[in-house]
């Protein structure tokens, strides 16, 4: 059995991804009496995607401090696939704004519909739970156009 400690050491890729994708299935326990996803569940899933995206961006503890406008554009039916796409769209000194989109895909069709969008503001925290500096967002030179982070700050608050 190969353990993580047994794996060969490798250096991380220089660019830090500014995007996170999560996929879920909408089951009966997630829905209301109309057989559509509860709005609160949609918001929780979107916040979770934003949290993971922000954590991957700065690799430290993050907390959600603000939820911007959430736009519910389409009901999310039971029995569909949901893809959440979260992207860091702006950074401050210690904060990150993450835009999250929720797409629905019927399980039996090649169709993709934007169902919900929202913006979340998260703040990075250091070991002392005080706001910590985050890498700045900058344009990438990659042909895909993915955003990458500057080198992480080297303050004592980073782990």
TrEMBL record:
- GO terms of molecular function: long-chain fatty acyl-CoA hydrolase activity
Q: Where is this region: Disordered?
A: 135-159
Q: Does the keyword Secreted apply?
A: no
Q: What is this protein called?
A: Acyl-CoA thioesterase
InterPro entries associated with the record: Cytosol_ACT, HOTDOG_ACOT, HotDog_dom_sf, Thioestr_dom
PROSITE patterns, sorted: HOTDOG_ACOT
- Print the keywords alphabetically: Hydrolase
> Where would I find the HotDog ACOT-type domain in this sequence?
16-128
Q: Which organism is it from?
A: Longimonas halophila
| Annotated PANTHER family | ACYL COENZYME A THIOESTER HYDROLASE, CYTOSOLIC ACYL COENZYME A THIOESTER HYDROLASE
Regarding protein family, the annotation reads: Belongs to the acyl coenzyme A hydrolase family.
What domain of life?
A: Bacteria
Q: Which Pfam families match?
A: 4HBT
Which BP terms does GO give this entry? Answer: acyl-CoA metabolic process; fatty acid catabolic process
GO CC terms, sorted? cytosol
